[in-house]
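Purpose: get a first structural picture of the assembly so the mutagenesis plan has something to point at.
Setup: two entries, given in the order below. No constraints added.
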Amino acid sequence: MPPSVPAEHAGRAGTGRPLRPPVPLDPRRDPQTGRAPAHRARPTPPRWHRLEAKLSPYAYISPFFLLFAAFGLFPLAYTAWVSLHDWNLLKSEHAFVGMGNFQELLADGYFWNAAVNTLSIGVLSTVPQLLFALWLAHLLNRPLRYQTLFRVTLLLPNVTSVVAVVVIFSQLFGREFGMINAVLTAFGFDRIDWQAGTATSHAALATMIMWRWTGYNALIYLAAMQAVPRELYEAATIDGASAFRQFRGITVPMIKPTIVFTVIVSTIGSMQIIAEPMLFGAQVSAAAMPTGGADRQFQTLGLFLYEKGFRNFEFGYASAAAWVMFLLVVLVVGLNYMLIRRMRGGLA
Amino acid sequence: MSARARAGAVRRNPLTYLTLLAIAFFSAFPIYWSVVVASHDNAAMAELPPPLLPGGNLFANIARVFDTAPFALALVNSVVVAGAITVSVMLFSTLAGFAFAKLRFRGRSALLMITVGTMMVPAQLGIIPLYLLMIKLQWNGTIAAVIVPSLVSAFGVFFMTQFLSRALPSELLEAGRVDGASTIRLFWHVVLPVARPAAAVLGMLTFMTAWNDYFWPLVVLTPDDPTVQVALSSLASGYVQDFTLALAGTAVATLPLVTVFVLLGRQIIGGIMQGAVKG
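Result (structure tokens, whole complex):
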């Protein structure tokens, strides 16, 4: 955080008092509650003032809620309505079909293929990523020189756009002239056609996602680790606990809320992976080809939705897919949450 | 292990530095590599082993980028889109954050919970009705369709609420009230100056996100009036694999942001870490 308010604010005309720089931590800790008496005790202000004080909070939050209702909430509800219809963008009639789209969807092999691919890519990218980020944060959480330089470099991939990441990695994973295959052949291995196989394409996509997000999660863990009281480590060191034992016994339990947070956010993110597989297959897929590889070997749920909605314009069917996808997200996030809460729960 | 740990204060472990250097290398290498590819011609990239140093073809390739795709228009569009979204998110998030952090009103905690809860809803769920809405409003194909749905951000509101409840001294507000200042005056003269550093970080994060956004602009825009990311993707998905062209486009789309990030990285990282602690 920049240390103080910029100079031009120090004596802003009209306020009559110099403004203070933001204090880093409010010592009273709980500013919301218990302040009511002070509020009442002040000299009676004009009536419109009291009205203003009463209504202005709603005025301040209304831009957010109005825009969110129009472009966030309304589409959610409308998805449910559309999903009950045979709704093709190119036709003017939208016949009501009830649960027909959902029945068709659950019998659609491509849908389940996409679900399995999403889970596979999600697990491959998230689990190693978060473990690695945890270890990386542990490495950074000690007195180091060039601390800022390391942090900036680690976050660099996160500044790069998804499109750029896939373009760069498509070159690296290229079959003919790719860097990775060049290294493989230099060591005497065979070239790998990364896009063609299910496992290899999932690995390549997971690599891209990991590259983009590991540093970000490491910094979030680092922030949490820096809030762990030093005395805990000092006491453990006196007791002769090894660095690894301190990591498992102190660091991990102490930052568990943050770990739960990152697991949930990463899970939601990984269930929505779409741009990576869409662009990874882009060079070979003409408009008539399926998305996510010639055999849909890396088509994710998001990409399935895109193909149904914006290639075939079957909006009703795609909306049904969106809802089932949402239920799957809730299910997977819920399972993950219970799992992570239970892990090493006794230590926390 | 424990012997080293006992040293406590300053542990300069060469192994830690080496590991971190290796990881930093893998973080930075793909970006460096994109510049290498972008500065050669396709013939050079087909050689084995491939060249590892930048060549002299960068500007020729960038010129080809601007000839092949409407990149100039795309850059203007992206600046307008990201700029408008950033200003709006900063303003509305600070307003709502102030209300949630420091004002008392009925339904405050419930509304804050809803705000946080919306961050958990996958954006793809509403994308089809959103598209239908844009057709109805006749905004599809225009950048208004990209700007308007992103004008507010639940994350931004949450971020500013977190910051202001910590950094804004309540007695400053009380003093203003005793002096008879209206809430909106308090906002302009007390809250805004204090909120500035956090709002700046939020602005940088928002700009980055908006600049890099891909899926929704792809759906709602056309290839001849795109944002940078959409233009880049159509550049990269031609029928012939032209990696030097694609990566020169990547450099044009990415390097401005990377440069800003390297210059302001300390503040951005501070913001991300600060927002994370309470999360």
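Chain A touches chain B through 129 residues (CB under 8 Å).
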